[in-house]
TrEMBL record:
PANTHER family: ACYL-COA DEHYDROGENASE (AFU_ORTHOLOGUE AFUA_2G16630)-RELATED (PTHR48083:SF17), MEDIUM-CHAIN SPECIFIC ACYL-COA DEHYDROGENASE, MITOCHONDRIAL-RELATED (PTHR48083). GO terms for cellular component: cytoplasm. It comes from Penicillium nalgiovense. GO terms for molecular function: acyl-CoA dehydrogenase activity; flavin adenine dinucleotide binding. Coiled coil: none annotated. This is Acyl-CoA dehydrogenase.
Length: 438
């Protein structure tokens, strides 16, 4: 445990391993120090103002700029020094030492704020819109966009969802027709996080026939003639800038195509696994926030002559936080460990896409049940936008987007089963091959 971290104040409010002074397979001192750095930053510069920014519907520009200056806007996976515009990574972690654990810790610690709209307002669009550029963009494209994103000079969003195509990504209708050195884009995108402020949208567009084989990934500049945007108002995540974007004969240079024409679908799919891991991590941290605030409330609130925490029915709810959060968190750590162990392997023979989908469902269910129980423990206070229950009230409105966004629950359940069925066949074949060599 990093000596600078304060001990947990409530059961299940912190992940277990980082609290223990033991050698463990996952976290090193570098990780502990990074956690302490992010925590201090969040406690000092974000948490005290988060409710105000969520209410206002945006994070102040100076705050976002500071966030970028501290390295939180550097796009991952980081392929070259140049991509980070000379900025240091958060906590001054050396570039070659940044791993999936570091990304997990940053996501976990930022989410402690409890106001997801604020976290997404700081860089949610870049977080999902830029990785396709970093992974599949050519050297010129990376140079053109990634340093500017790292510095905070430009912002991205990801445009997949449309009014008539959400889960069914292969059915998107927005078109991009080639006209000399340009594509002419027509169509619309819905619920686009940060879309209202973004300079570019990494968009799924139809360049070919129907289905997945006719889809390309195109970076559309949003300050272009023919683009209109209007803000959408959802139950929660108010500071995330959810946007409806329309494209009418928008001219986009062909140099903005990511990868090859009509080969965009697998690129879009590859973006989903890290996004789902991030959503699972955030869901579990939000569930921990519920555990923390509800427990601390139950310690102080007295009914019928004694503190709530002394009532068995309330203790049972607190215990349930652990029952739901801890197994999912341990499963998440196991998957991150597999990602780290296999990241240098040339072929994707250890497929954990199905397990990541399973994790997302486990984590979001843990969140939905936790926020319900936390609100119940807090009674009326859990329904109030101010005071001790404010974070919980906010989480009760932000929880749903974790269940639906980045692959909705029913879709995740089907995918989890399909992928795991495929994976056991692959594993069986690999085992037979190894045995035949013996
Ligand atoms: C706040 C917010 C932010 C978002 N940010 C972005 C963003 O930045 N970029 C972006 O591209 N998108 C974004 N989205 C969109 C999000 O990814 C979609 O809402 C999600 O993919 C589901 O699509 P849909 O809402 O159209 O639901 P639909 O696809 O219409 O599905 C409706 C319901 O039916 C279920 N369902 C669908 N098909 C089946 C089936 N075959 N069997 C059983 N059940 C099924 C689904 O699970 C879902 O619960 C955001 C959404 C929200 C609410």
């Amino acid at each position: 445990m990093a000596d600078t971290l304060r001990p947990a104040t409530a059961p299940y409010s912190e992940p277990l391993l980082p609290q223990l002074d033991v050698r463990n397979p996952y976290y090193t001192d570098l990780h502990h120090n990074l956690r302490a750095t992010v925590r201090e930053y969040v406690d000092t510069y974000i948490s005290p103002y988060a409710a105000e920014w969520e209410e206002a519907g945006r994070v102040p520009e100076a705050v976002r700029r500071r966030h970028c200056k501290l390295g939180y806007s550097i796009v991952h996976p980081l392929t070259s020094e140049e991509d980070s515009a000379g900025l240091s990574l958060p906590g001054n972690v050396p570039r070659e030492k940044w791993d999936t654990w570091c990304s997990l810790i940053v996501s976990d610690e930022l989410t402690r704020v409890g106001y997801v709209g604020v976290i997404w307002g700081l860089g949610g669009g870049n977080g999902i819109g830029c990785p396709p550029v970093a992974r599949f963009g050519n050297a010129e494209q990376r140079k053109r966009w990634l340093p500017g994103v790292a510095r905070g000079d430009i912002r991205f969003c990801l445009g997949i969802t449309e009014p008539d195509a959400g889960s069914d990504v292969a059915n998107i209708q927005s078109t991009a027709q080639r006209d000399g050195n340009h594509y002419i884009v027509n169509g619309s995108k819905k619920w686009i996080t940060n879309g209202i402020w973004a300079d570019y949208c990494t968009a799924a567009v139809r360049t070919g026939g129907p289905g997945r084989s006719g889809i390309s990934l195109l970076v559309i500049p949003l300050a272009t003639a023919g683009v209109t945007r209007r803000r959408m108002h959802n139950s929660g995540v108010n500071a995330s800038g959810s946007t409806f974007i329309e494209f009418e004969d928008v001219r986009v240079p062909v140099e903005n195509l990511i990868g090859q024409e009509n080969k965009g679908f697998p690129l879009i799919m590859s973006n989903f696994n890290p996004e789902r891991l991030g959503l699972a991590c955030a869901s579990l941290r939000l569930a921990r926030v519920c555990a923390e605030d509800a427990y601390n409330y139950a310690l102080k609130r007295k009914t019928f002559g004694s503190a709530l925490i002394e009532k068995q029915a309330i203790q049972s709810k607190i215990f349930k936080f652990g029952l739901m959060i801890e197994p999912a968190y341990a499963f998440m750590e196991q998957l991150v460990n597999i990602l780290e162990l296999t990241k240098d392997r040339p072929s994707d023979d250890v497929n954990i896409g199905g397990m990541t989908a399973l994790l997302k469902v486990m984590s979001t269910r843990a969140l939905e049940k936790s926020v319900r129980e936390a609100q119940q423990i807090m009674g009326g206070a859990g329904y109030n936008k101010a005071g001790k229950g404010a974070r919980i009230e906010q989480i009760s409105r932000d929880a749903r987007v974790h269940v639906v966004g980045g692959g909705s629950e029913e879709i995740m359940a089907g995918l989890a089963l399909r992928e795991e069925t495929k994976a056991i066949r692959t594993r069986r074949k690999a085992l037979e091959k190894r045995q035949s060599k013996v």
